[in-house]
Amino acid sequence: MAICPDNQDYETQNGADPIDRDRRSVLRKMAVGAVAVAGCSMVPAKWTTPLAEFAVLPAHAATSGYAADPPFTKTEVIEKSGVISIDKVLRPKFVSPKLGRDYGSSMKIVFDTGGEIHVPDTSNDVITKEKRIYRTGGRRPDIPTMEVYAEPKSQATKIVIHFMG
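Now predict its structure.
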């Protein structure tokens, strides 16, 4: 509160607050606006692709996709066994009479529609980002042998299993 020259309160003298709070609020908003305008003026009028300089990538980072498949020596074709509904979406189902590990330590499953499942360890189930599924079999009573499911709504009718034997 401001003190008047005659040591009386300004409010007592005039009945009003000497500091206009609305004016202070307006000044703050104007300052914020000025900073925002200044910041926007620093943005370039036209964006360009940034220049990135980097060295040669190491060999392990330069490769893309899967590691080289081992030299598979055998193949087996399995026809579609039926369909299965997973999350209320039908997909082709392929059932092998064997367990996944009976095919060796690793395998590659190729669908006749072009999709693939790389199975680096046949003792573990695999689900790809396309939602193709490999189930090793033998761990659950409802999946006694190896099963493979194509991606949702696929038209696959057969798979080829590449393995070592």
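The two ends are 93 Å apart (CA to CA).
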